[in-house]
Amino acid sequence: MTLVPKIVELLEAQGVDDVLLTVGGTIPTRDIEELKQLGVAGVFTPGTPTDEIVEFIRDGVKGRSREI
Ligand code: B12
Predict the structure, then answer these.
(1) What angle do CA 34, 30, 20 make, to 5 degrees?
(2) What is the pLDDT of residues 9-38, one digit of tens each?
(3) I want to staple 22 with a disulfide (CB 3.0 to 4.6 A). Which of 30, 35, 42, 43 is the partner?
């Protein structure tokens, strides 16, 4: 809740609206909904299967010019 609002603010200030913003790590459950409200597409906590993260990112960037 310290870094993400700043990142969102800087992305907005730069006019960047085509980035799939994801967050991972030891994130308190109570913060997850607020992070999503701020514009975070996905929040991944410890134990998330790596395939799930990969699939989420692949789906999220589908149709973009630099598709992975
Ligand atoms: C994917 C990933 C995550 C995912 C893990 C998903 C999961 N299944 O739990 C998420 C987003 C949850 C995550 C969380 C964190 N991570 Co991480 N993570 C990675 C990353 C990008 C890839 C790891 C990987 O998939 N390796 C390939 C597989 C085949 O090997 P593996 O041994 O099975 O990998 C597992 C472990 O690495 C474990 N894991 C991931 N991060 C961490 C951190 C610690 C301290 C521990 C013990 C285990 C662990 O999850 C992986 C998948 O199950 C690495 C960077 C890198 N390039 O290695 C950073 C990395 C390992 N993470 C790091 C850190 C700091 C964290 C967090 C402490 C961040 C935070 N402040 O909350 C937490 C701790 C989570 C924990 N205690 O388990 C650092 C570790 C630095 C260090 N020298 O100790 C790294 C090196 C990134 C970095 N450069 O800063 N992480």
Answers:
(1) 40
(2) 999 999 998 899 999 999 999 999 999 999
(3) 42
Provide the number of structural domains found in the chain: 1
The response to whether residue 25 sits with its C-beta less than 6 Å from ligand 1 reads yes
Whether residue 50 has pLDDT greater than 70: yes
The CATH number of whichever domain residue 8 belongs to comes to: 3.40.50.280
* Ligand 1 centroid to residue 48 C-alpha, Å: 11
**Spacing, Cα 56 to ligand 1 middle (Å):** 17
DSSP 2: -
Q: Is residue 29 part of a domain?
A: yes
